[in-house]
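Hi U.,

Before I forget, here's the chain from the pilot set. I'm dumping it here mostly so it's searchable later in email.
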Amino acid sequence: MSTSKTGICINTENCTLARQEKPIRLRSGQIEPCPECGVAVCVFEKKSIGAFKPARLAAYATALCAVFFVAIWVISSPPAAATRSANAVAQKSDKMLRFAGSNTIGSELMPALAEAYMKQHGITEVKRIQGASSDEVTLIDAKNPSPNTTIDIASHGSTTAFIELSKYSADIGMASRKIKLGEVKTVTSLGDMTSPANEHILALDGVAVIVNRNNAIRSLAKEQIAAIFAGVITDWVELGGRPGKITLYARDHKSGTFDTFQSLVLENLKLSEEARRFEDSTLLSERVAQDESGIGFVGLPFVKNARALAVSERGTTPLLPNRLTIGTEDYPLARRLYLYTPTARENPHIRKFTDFVLSRAGQEIVKQYGFVEQNLLLTKTNSLPDAPIEYTQLTSGAQRLTLNFRFLPGSHKLDNKAVRDIDRVIEFVENAKAADKPIMLFGFSDALGDDSINLKLSQDRAKAVADELTRRGVKLAHVIGYGAKLPVASNNSKEGRERNRRVEIWVKN
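Structure:
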């Protein structure tokens, strides 16, 4: 009969698993922390899952734990190991850094950032070693390899970021989406993962929907794109194009780009089985560029010889993906990429690394790998036909900064990205010598509720940004709220309403 290792937590005061006497299967078969409270799980060997009744199981495990902790107390010097939380031990790692989470971040971008960070700390020659799977890589000092000059990157999906953080087997979590409420609760011992101290926006990303350059279609609604890739719309004539069967090109199921497309476009729909799947974005783009009946989706850097379509949501102007529309997050298929860090860890590299990747140098690497960096630029933009007359007059001849200030749901408090963006604006104004140029803030709201209330909310949001900037010496020429006018997303969804609650920043030449 094969055996396996199981344990039970005895921290009944603070742990529901202990109070419910739930057996805990152990991966290594050795002493491990409880997945809920972190206290050491006592190990016992079992012949089968149903061999013990819960009460008997708890008593047996408790007895073993008592023997184990007494033995440790006898052979250990004070403070006794029996009184230590396993978390305190698990926090310590000989590694320079350990990353876990998103494949979108971890496949190429994170190894590049990690290598640059290592070189910044005096490691002149970095070697990459492939792990047990294609989603794992280790970076070492090629000249003097040792644990404290080693970085591990495991990219098994955003969900694993929070699992590994909670188990203290990762120092930094990578996520191509915002942490979910349930995940926040599982890592409360690490701090408030929704606060600026723990949640860091690494980069901005956008998915481009591409067609052959000879295709007459110039824009599509998000709902149309979903219907196309789900196999509901199968002929270009249904979209106002030339008659002909639509050929679908899609990234493979392991791709972070596909994950984004699934969540932002397909949602609950399934990708058509007729779609041709590609591991390589460049090859996918080339095939679409050669196929007049083709349509596909790739990250922004891989548009190449194909043509990107403008994308719209209900009641909004179609937008093309570019540094401005993704930087401001107005583009419907834009998203944020996140790093999550614990509040208190003994490893000083955690804070140093996040400071590095959010710096100008780190963001330049983000740009090199095809994502939209957060270093600010001024860009010219076309006037919008539905814009208020005053807005059109003020922005005529002006340039827009590549960001939007956004807010916590239901308030005029800046969200975590906006808090950092204040500092970026200050740096930009100083470096670009724009302090003497008229700087304008324009606030907007969603369309729910009374128009007068929405107008006031948009004014309050613009004023909240203005207060932060003027406190730091920036002079503003105009601070105006326009209510629910000029929506950039559909007001029919929660995500769309959040994107419409924004403040734009413009600079007059």
